[in-house]
Amino acid sequence: MAEVTLRKLNKRFDGFHAVKDVDLDIRDREFVVLVGPSGCGKTTTLRMIAGLEAVSDGEIRIDDSVVNEVPPMDRDIAMVFQNYALYPHMSVAANMAFGLKMRKFERSEIDQRIRRAAGILGIESLLDRKPRQLSGGQRQRVALGRAIVRDPKVFLFDEPLSNLDAKLRVQMRVELKKLHERLAVTSVYVTHDQVEAMTLGDRVVVMKDGVVQQVGEPLTLYNNPANRFVAGFIGSPAMNFADVTLRESNGRMAAEADGLRIELPPELAARARAHTGAKAILGIRPENIHVATAGDAPEHCFDAGIEVVEQLGSEILLDTRVGPALFVASIEPTLQVRPHDKLRLALRPERLHLFDAQSEQAI
Amino acid sequence: MIEGALWRRWVFYNIPLALFVFVLLFPFYWMIITSFRPDGELYRPWNAVNYMPFWTNHPTLEHFRYLFEETDFGRWMVNTMFIAATSTLISLFCGVLAGYALARLNFPWAGSLGTLIFITYLVPQTLLFIPLAEIIRDFRLGDSPWSLILTYPTFLIPFCTWLMMGYFKAIPKELEECARIDGASRWKAMLYIVIPVAVPGILSSGIIAFTLSWNEFIYALVFLSSPQEKTVAVGVTSELIRGDVFFWGSLMAGALLGSVPVAIVYSFFVEHYVSGLTGSVKG
């Protein structure tokens, strides 16, 4: 049971401003994911919460007490590291017991907690082994177990799945989600993988260059990205962007580029009107583009030259050239197309995004 | 492994290896055989009919008897053991702490301090013994084991520090961070996590430090003078070479017995030692 609050949090290394004015309220029992490209300050932020990095400026509160100066051991947190950081000279059971021994728990209590955690994670049979005798997935579970037995106020995860192979990663992701539902402990999770962020997070914090770009529930980020960076970072394959100019003719707003003219739907047009004549960036996700049919309004259709066809089985990803821009479209797997074909595509106008060309903020 | 024709295996692998092994082991063989040969054979001229330098048909323990009965060899062994073990322990204690501090604690000049310590290791003992001799005299430590126990660390501590610094740096920082989150203070994290993980490194530097002080010659020669205070290396060479007379049999017997403890130490820890030198820490 804990809330974590970050207020104007800053971290400066020698001449490098790694984390800039991060404000964040993590609610009790919430699973918050910090996501961003490498070097965006997400891990540094997590390490400051853990107490492993000193805070340059600002405030970290766990519940109501400011913990800036509290050493890691007194913060009542548990952390799972990317390389698991299992103590190599101790058995699995001793690894899990270490934190409890340091806190002077009774032997019986320690045993009971280890058995419970091992039961939750299905590692009862591994308790006597040394870490080097375990597979990657098993080490991961032991690292989780070591965090669970402590029954801490807050769990911190630093890219815990990135050392696992793709299949195991998906499996552990599901287990982590189940685990969080079962334990309901406030969790902060750092990853560079937006899929992990989307699937695990109650809320997702997108960071870039030490600055929080947007905080929101996964779908909010997906449907209403605050800026071009968030739009491009969240979602796979990534959103398509095209440099356009906003023009008004006959009272209707349109985004224009060479060989592309898309009329904006009323709601977006209303917001875009203030930017008439200005440059902007048009964004549309691959799954919101489809092969044009008779039912599509001509003002939402455009011609595309196919450059690459990626058949994924469940869908086809088409890399197409639209005027000066490259668009990826996700279309029905049954379509028969080849590179260099011409195709008429249509987009769903209500799914269009517009970003200011200078500030890159959503219009 | 060498690929290809059989002759290539012989020319590039088997023969060079055999030569190497021969060159390496021959002095030991020479030492062993000499210590068991009677004086009559040892001093036989090379052109005598029954001259047989590499073998003996009359092995004798006479040289060993001489060593123990006519010289203070037993005493020298005890001295050397005490001096080497004590100075190794002192150096390990300082080296582990200093190496940890240089590898892990952030303080200004940590990097340059590390290099500086290494440079002190490079100052040759053959120069350093001159000022040290003066210090030993001023502290009235001459002719006592403490003159060596306190001076050997001058080269052993930099050595251990440097080795341990490298070893600590190879241990993932997360281990310690994890321990500190788990509720350990920095001191406890070092005691319960870092040092146990560093045991191979500590053993390696301990073995090398022990060997260095066991074999040390110049300080022992300068700082000790009475026969019963001497170490093996100095005792054997100073008491068994009288003027231009070499007591070859006893000399070799002394050398042989003198190398036994080091050989035992090595073979006992060889497993840890090898993994320490190759620095394998896996999470």
Automatic annotation (TrEMBL), chain A:
Enumerate the spans annotated as ABC transporter domain.
4-234
Q: Which InterPro entries match?
A: AAA+_ATPase (IPR003593), ABC_transporter-like_ATP-bd (IPR003439), ABC_transporter-like_CS (IPR017871), ABC_transpr_MalK-like (IPR015855), ABC_transpr_MalK/UgpC-like (IPR047641), Mo/tungstate-bd_C_term_dom (IPR008995), NA-bd_OB-fold (IPR012340), OB_MalK-like (IPR040582)
The answer, when asked if GTP-binding is one of the entry's keywords, is no
Compartment list: Cell inner membrane
Q: How does it sit in the membrane?
A: Peripheral membrane protein
Q: Which GO terms describe its biological process?
A: carbohydrate transport
Example GO molecular function term? ATP hydrolysis activity
Q: Which GO terms describe its cellular component?
A: ATP-binding cassette (ABC) transporter complex, substrate-binding subunit-containing
SMART domains cross-referenced by the UniProt entry: AAA
- A single Pfam family it belongs to is OB_MalK
Keywords (A to Z) from UniProt: ATP-binding, Nucleotide-binding, Sugar transport, Transport
Q: Which family does it belong to?
A: Belongs to the ABC transporter superfamily.
User: Which NCBIfam families does the record match to this protein?
Assistant: PRK11650.1
What this protein is called in its record is Multiple sugar transport system ATP-binding protein
Protein species of origin? Enhydrobacter aerosaccus
From TrEMBL, chain B:
InterPro entries linked: BP-dep_ABC_trans_perm, MetI-like, MetI-like_sf
Report the sequence similarity comment from the record. Answer: Belongs to the binding-protein-dependent transport system permease family.
Q: What is the topology of this protein in the membrane according to its UniProt annotation?
A: Multi-pass membrane protein
**Which species expresses this protein natively?**
Enhydrobacter aerosaccus
GO CC terms on record? plasma membrane
What keywords appear on the UniProt entry? Answer: Cell membrane, Membrane, Sugar transport, Transmembrane, Transmembrane helix, Transport
Q: Where in the cell is it found?
A: Cell membrane
UniProt protein name:
Multiple sugar transport system permease protein
**PROSITE patterns this protein is in?**
ABC_TM1
Record carries keyword Secreted: no
